[in-house]
Amino acid sequence: MKDCNIVLRGLFRKAYNAVRSTDATLKEEKDDESQTERIEKINARKRALTFALFGVGSFLLGLFIIFVDPYHLLYQYKLKFGPGGEIFSLWEKPPVQLFLKVYLWNVTNSKEYMSGMDTKLEFQEVGPYVYRELMSHENVVFNENGTLSSVPSHPLVWDPLLSGDRKEDDLLILPNIALLSIADVVATKNMFTRLGLNVIIRQSNSQPLVQMTAKEFMFGYKSTLMDLGNTFMPSWIYFNKLGLIDRMYDFKGDYETIYTGTKLGMDNIGLVATYNGATKIPQWENPCGDIQNSSDGTKFPGNIKPNDTLRFFRKSMCRAKSLVRVGETVEDGFNSYVYHFDPESDDNGRVHPKNRCFCTASSIDQCHPKGLLDVKGCYYGFPIALSYPHFLDGDKVLFNKVKSGLNPQKEKHQSYVIIEPNSGTPIKLAIRYQINMFLGNLKNVANSEKFSDMTLPLLWTEIGMYRLPTFLRIRFKLYLYIIPLAQTCFMYALFLGSIFACTYSLHKFLASKRTEITKNSHWIEDDIILNIDKKLASYIPEKRLDVNSKEMEMFFNSLVIPLNTSVEEA
Question: pTM surpassing 0.70?
Answer without folding.
Answer: yes
